[in-house]
Amino acid sequence: MYTLLNGKELSKKIKREIASEVASIIDSGKRSPSLAVVLVGEDEASKIYVRNKIKATKATGIISHEYKLPESITEKELIETIRFLNNDDEVDGILVQLPLPKQISEEKIINLIAPEKDVDGFTPKNTGRFYIGLNSLKPCTPSGIMEFFKEYNIKIEGKSAVVLGRSNIVGKPIANMLLEKNATVTICHSKTQNLKKIVKNSDIVVSAIGKAEFIKEDWIKKGAVVIDVGINYNEAKQLVGDVDFKNVADKCSFITPVPKGVGPMTIAMLMKNCLTAYKMRTK
Ligand code: GUN
Question: What predicted TM-score, i.e. pTM, was given to this entire model?
Fold first, then answer.
């Protein structure tokens, strides 16, 4: 029997804790933490993500400022928006939803975000500090995954962990977080040879490759912990992860579902980063 890592429930618990902390901040007569969310253009997935992020601010008592900017915006105009938010003392967190339209350099925009307001943990300063083990704002999806290990008392130290995918948002940072907890980590990607064999030898599997139901039952070591970051649609147009859940689950000790697994945790950790940024900025 496996235990389901319930992201919906755990994210609610974390948001309740944040809401209670925010309420006591307000009770003490101080202003609420705040988050500016910048959405450029009409990307449908981005609109859904942003809507869910705004919803979470309302649930936690964090003030949100939404900036919906047209697809045609110039890089210069977006730079001005970021500068304005950097300079607004009452903005604690700045989130620029990615991807950005092609006329805008994502690198330039991310570089510009004030590191102390960088609630995505994407700026070079936070990234650099994170990878050498210094205090920093950290990317939300891997932080959310680590909350599962904590909540469900899953041992990491000494375990073999495999991360599928090497993105800056998920693959690299989760590999680093598992390494910090003394796992032996292998990072796999599209050029990896003997992928199945590596996965089969792993106690912990984190997949963030975006391939519907790619990881099959015979890839998984008995009792493995499986974390599925994938958001894909299969041929039947159902929302599924990277893992063939219905066949894989019985081999696992713990596994995340898709949906209601990693997704809601990302948003809860964004709220947590907002609160952290607020506390750092107002202390
Ligand atoms: N687009 C996809 N994932 C993310 C994320 O975590 N943060 C931002 N800002 N944009 C994204």
Answer: 0.97
